[in-house]
Design a protein that fits this description.
The protein is an alpha/beta fold. The chain folds into two domains: 230 residues, Aldolase class I (TIM Barrel); 81 residues, no CATH class. The protein contains 15 helices and eleven strands. Helix 2 runs parallel beside helix 15 and helix 3 packs parallel to helix 4. The radius of gyration is 19 Å and the shape is globular. The protein binds flavin mononucleotide.
Amino acid sequence: MIRTRVCDLLGIEHPIFLGGLGGGHTSPEMVAAVSAAGGFGAQGCHMLGPRQIADAAAAIRARTDKPFALNFLLFLVEEDCYAAALAQKPAAIVIAWPRPDQDMKGYIARAHEAGCKVMVMAGGVPEARGAADSGADIVIAQGTEGGGHVGWMASMALVPMVVDAVAPVPVLAAGGIADGRGLAAALALGADGALLGTRFLASDESPLHANFKQAIVASDGHDTVLSEIPDIASGTVWPGAMSRTARNAIVQRWSGREWALRQYQREALTDLQRARQAGDIAESTLSYGQDAGLIASILPAGDIVRRIAREAEEIVSSRLPGLLRRG
Ligand SMILES: Cc1cc2nc3c(=O)[nH]c(=O)nc-3n(C[C@H](O)[C@H](O)[C@H](O)COP(=O)(O)O)c2cc1C
C-alpha cells in the first residue's frame, strides 16, 4: 500500500483526495463514500448557508466515522458560514482562491484553534509560498488542466516547483489526474498525494444531472476551454482565474462577445439555471478537466478510490522497478 506524510497527518489510508467542489457539485454521499474507502472527502461549502453546512457535516458523519474536510472559496466566504464550519470541527478546512488583501493567516489560525488541519489550493508558486508562510499544513498545487477555476501553469511544471518552494510542507497535485497513472506521476514529481475533481463528478454519488455525467464520459478531453463566460453569466467576479469548461453551444455563442453577455447577465443567469435543471448539456456551463478523456464510465466513488490506489501501487511496485537495469 502507498503511504505518504499526508496519510499520517490526516489519518487516512490512501493519499487520494476529493476536491471540495462548490456550488452543488459535491454531496454528503459523495464525500462520505470517498472517506469511507480510505481517501479524503471534502464538502464544497460555496453557496451553502450555516445551517446547511451543519446539516452536511451531520449527513457525512451519519455515513462514515472517517475524516473529511469542508471547503471554502475564500474571496466569497461569509463569516457566519466559516464559523459554522469550524464549529463542526472537521479534520481539515480547505481554502481556495483568497483575494490578495484577505487575511489568510487569520483564517488559518482560527481553523488551527478549532483543531482542524488546513489545506490551501494554489495555481502558482507565489500563491503556494503565501499559503505556506500563512501556516497551511498542506498546499494543493492545481494545474491548468483541471476542471473549474484554474490558473495558467500545467501540473507537470507546477507541482515540482511548488514542492521545492514550500518544502517541507507536503503538497498535493491537482488537475488532470483521473487514474493510478496520474497518482504515481504526482508522487514522482514530489507530491504526497493527488486531489481529483472531474473523476468524482462522474461517480454514482455525484449530485450532477445524469446528462452531465454522461457528457464527461463522452468527452475525449480535447473539448474544454478556459473561459470567463460561466462567471459572467452567473454574475461572479473571480480573483485571478478563468474557468475550464466544455466548449459547448453557450460558450461558443458568447466567446469573443463577453462584453455583450455582460449586457444580458440577468437573462443569461435565468436561462442557465433552467438549462442546468433540465440537464441541457448544450446550454449549461459544464466545468470539467482535460482528464475527462481518461474517464470511460460512471463508477461508485469508493471504487474510484480503491482502483486508483491499486493502479498506482502496481506502477510503483512493478512497472517502475522493472525499468531499472543493473550494471
Ligand atoms: C465543477 C467544479 C467545481 C469546483 N469547485 C471548487 C471549489 O468550490 N473549491 C475548490 O477548492 N476547488 C473547486 N474545484 C477545483 C477542484 O478542487 C480541483 O482542483 C480540480 O477539479 C482538479 O482538476 P480535475 O478536475 O482535473 O481533477 C472545482 C472543480 C470543478 C470541476
